[in-house]
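Supplementary Methods S3. Input chains for the assembly prediction are listed below.
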Amino acid sequence: MNSEKINSLLEKYWNCETSVQEEKELQTFFSGNSVPEEFRQYVPLFSYIKDEQSISLSDGFSERLQNAFGVEGEGKERYITIRIFRPLLRIAVSVLLVVGMGVSFYFISKQDNRPQFVETFEDPNAAMQHAAYALEKLSHALRKSETASVETIQFIDDLDIDWIAIDSLNKDNPVEIDSVESEE
Amino acid sequence: MNIDSFHTVILPLKDKLFRLAYGIVREQAEAEDILQDVLLKLWSKRDEWNYIENLEAYCFRVTKNTALDRLASMAVRKTGVIDPEKENLFFVDNRSPHTEMERKEQRSAIDQSIGMLSENQRLVFTLREIEGMSYREIAEALAISEDLVKISLHRARQKMKEILSVYHKDE
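Predicted structure tokens for the full assembly:
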């Protein structure tokens, strides 16, 4: 950079018209070793700025900060992890909800749609025959059970039980002899 | 989101915040203490970050206020004191005793004149010259208008210019 440019930049600098970039250029120029005599007087200012810029945190600071955070809340680590994953947890929960609802709706609707009786016959005559066969089977079974019960009653009658003797065992509530006898 | 802001917005600012605090209290250990306090304070208020318009500027304001409080509680205002060790490191290029002494004098003149600046001027000067922040960023960080930033910086630079030229004439 020539003297003229430096002069105009400095002029702008004193009047606060320089951009951050231009100020950086000035700093670079003044931190060099070959500053012309006419500008020497300004070196201390830019040296000061450069010096201040180089000030930084001591090496142990990060560790110290971590310790400070550790002391501030023991067991906070777990909390932090939960906080990190909280948005994810939210998403997971909502996905689960939606999937669960979808699955249950699917099964419910499937169940509702399934007909209780399915028409399996195409020929009405065949259906009629099958129905007649089924009914006949049912009536046969009913008749069989009826015969069985009649037979049982007959069998008990044939035993010729002494009802009065049995009744005397239960004096509080005697069976009426008349009705028993009349039945016979 | 809060954790993210802490790592993406606040922690990267730690050097700048440290230098801001350092610019106010002029002591390494004290400034580190302040930064630690500030970070803990910010962390404890993490639930409020979402409501803060400009978190970065907010960090600067908290640091500035904490440092100023600390400065007020420190018995002596420590401007113009520099670490002799650092000074030697900086002037390592020019070892001749004469120039070294001359520069030391100049340096202390600068330190003194910075100590003479008003609080706003000094903060603006620090944020602009050392951190290279834009006028708008400085205005937001210090919660003052952009015009006031420009005026403060202008006065600070004029004062520097004056002191440097007076010093130059004296030689």
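Chain B touches chain A at residues 1-3, 14-15, 18-19, 22-23, 28, 32, 35-36, 39-40, 43-44, 86, 90, 93, 103, 106-107, 109-111, 114, 126, 128-130, 132-134, 150, 153-154, 157-158, 160-161, 164-165, 167-168 (CB under 8 Å). Residues 54 and 63 of chain B are 14 Å apart (CA to CA).
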